[in-house]
Amino acid sequence: MRPWPNCGNATITTCCRGRAASRRPLPLVGQLTLADPAPRRRRPGSVHGCLVQQADGITTGETAVQFLGPRLVGRDAETAMLTTLALRAARGSGQAAFIAGEAGAGKTALLRRAAADAEGAGLQSLWGSARELEAHRPFAVVSACLGIDDRPVDPLRARAAEVLLGQARYGLPGTLGGADFPTVEAMCVLVEEICAQGPVALFLDDLQWADRASALVLQRLVQSVAQLPLLIVGALRPVPRVVEVDVLTRGLRGGNRTVLQLGPLASSTVPLLVADTIGHEPGPRLLRLCEGAAGNPLYLEELIAALQREEAITLHGAVAEVTADYPVPAIDTLITHRLAYLRDEVLQVLRAASVLGAGCTLHDLGAVLEVPAHVLLTSIADAEAAGILTPDGPRVVFRHDLVRQALLDDVPSSVRSLLHIRAAQALTRAGAAPERVAGHLLEAAPPDGEFLVPWITDSAARLTTRAPGLALRLLGTALEIADPADPRYEQLRLHHVVAQLSSGLLAEAEESARIALARPADSGLEDLFRWIIVQAAFARGRPDIALAETRLTRGTAGAPTLEAVRFQAFASVCLFALGRLPEAGAVAAAARRAAAELGDSMALAHALQVLAAKHFLEAPGLEALELARQASRLTPETIHPAQWLGLQLALANCYMELDLTPDAERALASVRPSAEHLGGVFLPWYHLSCALLAFHAGRWEDAIAEVDAGLDPGVHFAMSRALRALAGAIAVHQGRRDDAETHMSQAAAAQDSGTVSWFYEYVLLCTQALLDEAQGRPERAFRRLAHSFDVGIGHLPGQLILSFLTPDLVRLALDQGDSPAARRYAQAARSRAAHSSAPYHLGDACRCEGLLAQDPELLLEAARHYREATRPLNQAHALTDAAELHAMRGRPSDGRAHLERALAIYADLGAVWDAARATARLRAVSVSRGNRGPRNTARLGWEALTSTERIIAGHVAAGHSNPETAARMCISRRTVSTHVSNILRKLGLTSRVELATEVIRRNSPPEQQQPST
């Protein structure tokens, strides 16, 4: 085997190493003098050795469409698959596909071909590429793909950009992993609104570098892709592995989701590709050499190009052959060989570009090299002609990341660091987003303190709202290198603690704030550090620690009166969370008076909130409601938006408890935009409140839709237990005990430590007791409920927070023969009803008395109250109790009538288990069901749709997008999306287009209706 030609006795590896070693290092300062060589020309239409002649069209098995994309040699099956998916998406049935393969396998070429085909099918194509330098920048790839990076003027994109800024979220406790659900939702809304204008295709390359936030957006889009005229195609290498991206490609096959494994080209394809590249059939030696490229298109192209540069291919008629047998070099050696033919000035520019990362602009490159951008044009043209760069407007894009990596390996680390610092400075001067600057500063080692410290001091707040993880890392570095005597040092400490808080590192934020307070300083930031301690402790479920800190602060000599009152007001919040209601009320009353004197809305809001909640637990009624209303009247302009949102959600729950359903619905509708914009614990709290309202009203599928919408943020913000438990309760009632047990095991495993979640632990308790009864263990259910009623749930008093359970407690106590306990529970129900006079509470009191006195008329009175309160499940239970007593008193016909009414309600609810239990109870007293007319028990088909689902189906038929439907119905987009998925499943449809067609068919006059298919 001969060595490679024109290299003496050395192999190509040795030759290229020798050339690389002789190159001049990249200049650090000064101008570059660039010559103007004659550029080499590449064969048109050849990328990765795959793209060949233009295709006239393709037949996919569904239809033939004229496309502009060139044919990919050896990838006909993959191309046909992506073309088919594009056609389906164009017809309204969204599709998702992910192309996985090794570097150089032709993923990008396949993506570009798919993009051309998608445009030919009438889809708007949007393109984005993940970049290694931006892997830690939240929403980098998806925001670039959707075009919201550069101050968009389009109103749709401008709204998403505003949410991405996240200014209202600064200083709020975040979540580990930094899941920014408001921005995730804003990105999904934007995609759906773009899709409402016409079919859309998203192409995302190099997803192995994708940031986690972008991957979460993709997960959401893939979950609902069937509802939209949307095609999602992503490409990625097997390494590095990103967990969130792995989720996208695992288990996606089937339905609307596809994974294409892009392996080596078939051996029969290699001669075709070689022939197209060099214009002649390959001879035996050339073919054997090319087969050594293992079917990798990039490898093949680089191998042939190297042979051509070395003039090692000769023609013998129509056959091309190598002059001798040569070894097959490694791919990186071939890339280096290509680079060795470039002038040094061009290499210097390319090395700088490799450091700045894929997709840097010509302006960025000029700023870093300290030369005007136009001076670089000749070098860029040379690099494009040599196949190093790909033309892409103002951006400098490498033909392949392996090429960029080969250049980067040639740059000393000290030079890389300097270039990153220069890039950060240039981006700062240009007013770029702080996270772009941060990406370069993270790569600079050692850091440049003279630039980093002032920059991060000025930019920390904006960076923390958009990328708290990046802010935390840079602030930590700044604190390490800054002089503690620097006047900015304490400000850096504060920003660092806030970044910890925003990143969900609550205990760490608390500890850092304590350390800062222990350091002798007079920075005027002491109160802010104390508030962070209080906020972090309260958010992580330690109101006791927060309370202690408020008391320490109020006892500090010289503490400002305003801050002292604010800490006093928040102390009442902590006392209430700890269940110390008398003390909480006294502190809140004092804080209310002081806040009114000072005119401070923040302290007043906390005080009113505690007074309202205390009154509501002890004596629910108009006085408690008026206090809650007073607190809610404070505007977001006078208190923090998060505090205002909490007051509104608390008020909505007060309305719900007093059966003021329209008021509750209006309150929840008014806070939805704020909850979606602010996120945090408020988003799952909002969805849980909506779910409870729907559950009590008997709209169980609506409740499940709200649970589904709230679970993702609920898991991250410690609010998932109640959501899962509510889903479990519905599953028990519907006779799906296995599902209920699954929900409860997941709820039990959740680590909900947030203080807000404590007030909803009763949902878990109720579902556990309900499941006990479903499993035939009523005595266990009674012990569970009785214990919690007597000793409380956590810090909260059981007799106050669990008074709604009194009818079940009376029923279970009587079954266990414990009449004294039953009378005690009934007294608690009477006391609550006397204060509120709400129909629901009156119903509970009447049912308890009816069960105690064995009086069916009292039970029927309870049923009437429940009907007024719109609590159908409670109404059916009271009717069943009355039916049983009538039967026991020898009035079976009355018993049968009440049973039928109860069973009709159970049927409307889908409460299969309750219906079976009621039937069994009445059968035991010799009452059976009468003649039953047909009832709607359909699980599939149009009759299975709920009233909400039919309304949403009408919106789909009217051409309204999910965001538009959500706005019209005053519910969340995710809730609408869940309903649309359920509608499609029930009707056996695959797209919104099919659903709209079916709705229109059903709404047309009978003589115009066509049978559905």
Plain-language structure description:
- The chain is of the alpha/beta class.
- It has 49 helices and 15 strands.
- The strands form 5 sheets. The chain has a 5-stranded parallel β-sheet, with helices on both faces.
- 54% of the residues are buried.
Strand content: 5-15%
Give the % helix: 55-70%
Record field, number of beta strands:
15
Number of DSSP helical runs: 49
Structural class, by secondary structure, is: alpha/beta
Rounded radius of gyration (Å):
34 Å
Side-by-side strand order of the widest sheet:
6-7-8-5-9
Largest sheet: 5 strands, parallel
End-to-end CA span:
68 Å
Give the uncertain stretches in residue-range form. Answer: 1-69
Tertiary shape: globular
Average pLDDT across residues?
86
Q: Secondary-structure map with pairings?
A:
Blueprint: H1 12-22, E1 51-54, E2 58-59, E3 64-65, E4 70-72, H2 76-90, E5 95-101, H3 107-120, E6 124-129, H4 140-146, H5 155-165, H6 181-197, E7 200-205, H7 212-223, E8 230-236, H8 243-249, E9 257-262, H9 270-278, E10 281-282, H10 284-291, H11 297-309, E11 313-316, E12 319-322, H12 331-339, H13 344-356, E13 360-361, H14 362-369, H15 377-385, E14 389-392, E15 395-398, H16 401-408, H17 413-429, H18 434-443, H19 449-466, H20 468-481, H21 489-502, H22 506-518, H23 526-539, H24 543-554, H25 561-577, H26 581-598, H27 601-618, H28 622-632, H29 641-657, H30 661-678, H31 682-696, H32 700-716, H33 720-733, H34 737-749, H35 755-758, H36 761-774, H37 778-791, H38 798-801, H39 806-815, H40 819-836, H41 839-853, H42 856-869, H43 872-888, H44 892-909, H45 912-923, H46 947-957, H47 962-969, H48 973-987, H49 992-1003
Parallel strand pairs: 5-8, 5-9, 6-7, 7-8, 10-12
Antiparallel strand pairs: 1-4, 2-3, 11-12, 13-15, 14-15
Helix pairs in contact: 1-12, 2-3, 4-7, 5-6, 6-7, 6-30, 7-8, 11-12, 12-16, 13-14, 13-15, 13-16, 14-17, 17-18, 18-19, 18-20, 19-20, 19-21, 20-21, 21-22, 21-23, 22-23, 23-24, 24-25, 25-26, 25-27, 26-27, 27-28, 27-29, 28-29, 29-30, 29-31, 30-31, 31-32, 31-33, 32-33, 32-48, 33-34, 33-36, 34-36, ...
